[in-house]
Queue: 2 jobs
Job 1
Amino acid sequence: MHFWKMIAVENLKKSYEGVEALKGISFNIREGEFFGLLGPNGAGKTTTISIMSTIVAPDSGKVSIGGKDIATNAMDCKRMIGVVPQEIALYNDLCAFDNLMFWGGLYDVPKAELKKRIQETLELFGLSDRQHDKVKTYSGGMKRRINIASALLHKPKVLFMDEPTVGIDPQSRNLIFEVVQKLHREGMTIVYTTHYMEEAERFCDRIGIIDKGEIIAQGTLDELKSSSKMKECISISFADGSSEDHHTSNVRSDLSKIVLRYNEAGRDIAHIDIKKVNLETIFLSLTGKQLRD
Amino acid sequence: MLKLALKDLKLFVSEKRGLLLTFLLPIALITMFSLAFGGSGKKGESRPMTLVVADDDRTAESRRVAQELDSLKEFEVQVTSLDTGMNMVKKGDKAAILVLHKGLEDSVKAGASPPIEFMYDAAREAEIGILQGSLMGSLMGIVGMGSMEKSVVERFKKKNPDLDSAQLENIRQQIKENFSPEASEEQMEESQSFIKSTALVAEEETSPGLVQAVAGTAIMMLLFSVTSMGASLLDEKQEGTLKKLLYSPISPGSILTGKMLFTNIVCILQLTVMFLYSWLVFGLNIAQNIPALILMIIATAYACSSFGMFLAAVARTRAQVQGMSTLIILVMSCLGGSMIPSFLMPLWMQKVAVISVNYWGIQGFYDIFWRMLPVGDPTFLTRVLVLMAIGTGLNLVAMRLMKRNLLAIA
Ligand SMILES: Nc1ncnc2c1ncn2[C@@H]1O[C@H](COP(=O)(O)OP(=O)(O)O)[C@@H](O)[C@H]1O
Ligand SMILES: [Mg+2]
């Protein structure tokens, strides 16, 4: 059975002491889909995840997971989801194995099966040999990996990952990317929040761009590109130091024409720069600001 | 729930400093206090107290009482006249004297309560507490039995006028047997109604100093450790693990109950270790009433752990808990008799003491080791019930507050 709407979020609103964290956001996620929630700090990503994982009650709006309303079926929904919180939340004085035994043990997984899954997961994250060391001796990246591992042991249908790669070494980051893509291939429905547009571009089937509590655009990367009024930009610098920009929706055909025209006019081209449309530029065009600042 | 408690236990064991604070520090304190109070479970090791007996009766019976008191290890009797004795107290030479009034012999023979009076300097109440306590018990043994036996027989006669003398003799005999010094605690308890005495000391006596040192210190230290365990909930909030627990299909109630369970387990362990230590090192006779001891340990652990939960519920950070707890625990311990025995305190303070967990716990342990009450004794059970009620009350309030504050992530 495939849900067209594995997750349905309808008009969520949430205010904190006068601050409107969410101003009515809606999106649907298909079963097995990798959905990215891209937005700068303070956009409302964590608030959205917290509401979807039932630990924060929205002021209004509805969320259903696997066809079940989280407001009325919180426990059923909790069993379906795994959450990787933005902050690393582990018991530092326990070893990785004990942590995983504990976090996995909160779900109804038989003990023997749990132990097996823990070994598999540790293997996956490259931490098998350190499993009996206390977590407090781990690097940030290793803790992040255990933090993710602890959300996977009950094999959730749906995985929420809230900025899982913030502040870690490239090696850990790549490992996490690999695991995430593997989970995606295996059919897990994933909601992945990030403020790195490269991550969103690289993995996500569909992307919601969120800013100031609103989803300002959503769709596949191609849909976002074509719907945006942004055009790619051919930037030409001349030998005399001056430069000119040409906006176009078809670089390939336009580039040669432009170059030919300048040649005929006798102008000496020193440098050609092509600025492609990406999430960064789309975000810039939608909000007038940089994604990262 | 059990899993949560086990996880906490694992964490608890992994932290050496916490273990040290929970077990070694109390042991060190108990040792110090025991030595300070001259406490030792073995009778007769304490120094004898000088007891001035003013003999105004001057009969064979009054001399016998004085002699028997003197023969006890606790007392060194000095006999004087009533006037001299009263002057001693008035001048401040003595804190108290024991007066054997005229008619002692007659009333003992008649089976009436003997005219014995304890005269003391009210300003020196503190000094006479222990003296008075053990004196009452000894007197009971010396003059009490005979007169009690008679008054029981008298009562029987009055109620059953048709009893013949053979039956009466039979009853007399039975009383003699049953109310011998080895009489059961229950019977000793009954005999209290025949003789006016404040505290009844049974034959196999444990020094009150030792009970004081163990119970007083153990409960105070328990309060300090539960504070830290309660605060671990606040740590979990700060560390984000509490939030992560909420993501899982564990009800918020179970998360809190798990923490309570953990705190209770550690408290019970801590108290058990304290009593085992007192037994091994100071000879506290923990075997004499194991059911009562177990009941009291559980009740005390429950009440103390609820205190930890309550503090965690009203505070926002560990630092706040620690700030509040130090003051509250010191005041409660002081009032409740953890530092100075309650019976040495002025009366008003003893009355205020009932608000402290320490008071009920310490009195309960006194009931077991000093007053030798049986497990079914109403006084003892009342203390257990009060501790349970305190525990339940604080736990409920804590749960309520926590569901509103601590568990509200938004
Ligand atoms: N518990 C809270 N109390 C008050 N304001 C909050 C709380 N959580 C989030 N906010 C506010 O809501 C907005 C959205 O926050 P958040 O969802 O954490 O953003 P993001 O995860 O995208 O960085 C921010 O303005 C933040 O300050
Ligand atoms: Mg966030």
Job 2
Amino acid sequence: MSRYKETPLIFELATSNEGSRYIRPLDVPKPDFSEWFGDAYREGKPNIPDVDEISVVRHFTNLSSKNYHVEVGTYPLGSCTMKYNPKVNEDMSALTGFAATHPMQPDETVQGNLELLYHLEKMLNDVTGMAAHTFQPAAGAHGELAGILLIKAYHEDRGDTKRDTIIVPDAAHGTNPATAAMAGYKVREVKSNEYGTVDLESLEAALGDDVAGLMLTNPNTLGLYDGNIEKITRMIHDCGGLCYYDGANMNAIMMHARPGDMGFDCVHWNVHKTLSTPHGGGGPGAGPVGCNELLEPYLPRPVVAKKDDMYYLDFDRPKSFGMIRSFVGTFGVLVRTYAYMLSNGAEGLYEVSEGAVANSTYLRERLKDYYHIPYDTPSMHEFVMTSEWQKKESGCNTLDIVKRLIDYGFHPPTVYFPLVVAEAIMIEPTETETWRDLDALADAFIKIAEEAKEDPELLKGAPRYTPIARPDETAAARDPILAG
Amino acid sequence: MIGYLPMSREERRRMLASVGVDLDKLFDMIPECDRCSVEEYEALADKGMKEMEVVEHVQALADKNLNTAKYDCYLGAGYYDHYQPAAVKHLINRSEFLTSYTPYQAEISQGTLQAYFEWQSYITRLTGMPIANAGLYDAASGAAEAVLLACRDKRRYKVFVSGGMHPETLETVQTYCHAADIEVVVGEIDENGQQTVYPDANREFACFMIQSPNYFGIVEDLDLLVEKAHAVGALAVVSADPVSLAMLKRPGDAGVDIAIGEAQSLGIPTSYGGPGIGYMAVTNKLMRKMPGRICGQTVDRDGKTCYVLTIQAREQHIRRERATSNICTSQALIATAATIWLALQGGSGLLDVAEQSAAKAIYLEKKLTANGHFKLVYDKPYFREFLIEAKEGVDLEKLNKALLEEGIIGGLIVDDNKLLIAVTEKKTKEQLDRFAEAMLRLCDA
Ligand SMILES: Cc1ncc(COP(=O)(O)O)c(C=O)c1O
């Protein structure tokens, strides 16, 4: 089959039928560009080959066939929420009435866009318990930056300049500490307790008047809800800090609990996880950030506003911390989110989260006798197990187990994260899997646990039926070849 | 029947019961005090809509916009309406590209990975730089990342940024720099619209950054930038439009250290400002300090050529607070769309797009400035976009409103009395003639 062939680089597919194929012939005089641009002019054709259309189409179709994706099967990548997204959302985003609007168009010519964003903001407020949202951030990590900059702007506005530290739990996603550092903060790590949630003593010890805020996700990266959350946010507030909610796990709690009610001051969404945008092999997504009234004045510009019956982009925000990208946000992605919110309503979102937690809980119950589960408290939309038993018995580690899972036709879960669990296997099936799908995945995992005992080589030699297997990553990083 | 869920509540209940779990107790880990008690929502409806209703509702909103497929639009300012061949959207809408995650599992992600690699390759070919990453959010945040990279490399916390940059890019750079305690010195462009004056303080600045073509469409002198920056030990950084690089001197050939830019111009729909895609290319020396994903070529256990995410020791999931950036999810599918656009256009198509955009902008500008109604603000070569000033007494707001009546979305008003006008290959001579005629007529009205 073609997908097992090496695919040459596009640069090797030059055609003899050269020329510009898509653009209408020039119908105005052609200037002497060499004279026009002078020294800045570069003579000749750019160094990229002309390729005929069929070769381009075959090339990228062949490439695509080497990808696993949500629409062939379960993609239980923990923390990434790889759910199926209704096709209609794609169509809505591609409507000419949206796709062919320019970001600098006057407000009165894009009332539809603005109305959509205005209502979407209110819906996001409803689900998070926040007072306002910005649409600027392009993804989750970018949203984290916006959130921490809100907190920073708040402290600065009050002249409280001694706060130079952000508290981050050890189970946090890498973007949390990286964000705090980008925002100019030191990072103070707090430990998890034996239940996998924040250790209150460790938190107590981390508090002080140098604390600007806390970054936390709840449920956390182990899928565990922190029952002390209101206590935690109060402790931070009592020492003068503010609380940031990493919304990557919103899929667990929509319409069941709200970050605002837990005491958080701001929150980001990964709409490409929770609110229906396919992940695209690594984006584009969007990371709207919600905040309470306290932080609202500092939101990045512009915000979407309404006066009388007109919607408009409000740039006149004297306390705004500025912009973190150009234009209003990743609009094309937000159209999908809007359509998704409409199709679900409050009731649908409630069931989305219920389904996410139910599916994860079911899988965990089916697998708990076969794999070591480090925390035995009930988990939510995802759970973490490990290869500890297999490693002891047969030397098969997490990597071997999940590579074998590929042989059974599944995408592996997230592995070796969170860092607080050795040999972690982090599973998030999402609500869009059927009972049938879940059983198939559980059966495969159970079979692999048996194979680990009986024939470990089956695991070590996996994957077997993929275009390539076990690439040499060390060589790639040592002498990088990054372009062809 | 709720939305698109595959299971009824009843089935969910049965499924959980089969493993001894009670659906009604599923959320018991959330203390009562945290439970959602919202009875009324500000905007969210209780019940979801059926697909037909969603389509009608959303289409109605789209219909409220004036769109640039129907209206003849002359806006640019960082986002340009270039033609996208039909094959692009067919290919990127394949589920295999659309619904896969960031390629962490190389064995089953070779499609995405090779697409990343080809994107990086195209960017190095266009910019003349040796190394490119797999993309950043956009040009503005990319410019901010470039500044942070320069400061990391030079261990200096002061940067010089041209006043000819896109104002929103400038503001973004200022936001990031304020956060990281980096001082930003903003330069002034000269009477010709170019950045020709640079600081001469030795070993004080981490980098000098300019944009070319700049916000006003003017092509900048990259050689001068590099000479001035290197003379005082600073890195030379340029934000360069990729279409313009088909016919203009490449940053790499001028000795630039970091090139970034907005690649939305490679046929990506303007979509009210996003998604687009920022690119970043650097010298060999800066490779391991770069932010973002990087894809590298290697071999698998059988010696087959393949692709992996590489030099990951820079990234947040490994380095946490010492990472080169917090970026995780980026704009991969848009990079793939731009890659396919370049593959389909080829060097000939790209050059045609660039030449036609330049030629048509020049044609239009000459018509507008022929008889004193408008004059060109900066008398230097521009690419695809130019700034003109209206004669005394012309109210540009009124002029643009009148143009709308005639089905035209006019240029961007700058400083009350100037218009920034962008023209791409999509315009016909007929459209340009009609626009020029309307502008001149309304100017006199
Ligand atoms: C817990 C958590 N926080 C933050 C992020 C960052 O989000 P993004 O990839 O959209 O930048 C992720 C996703 O990768 C995540 O899982």
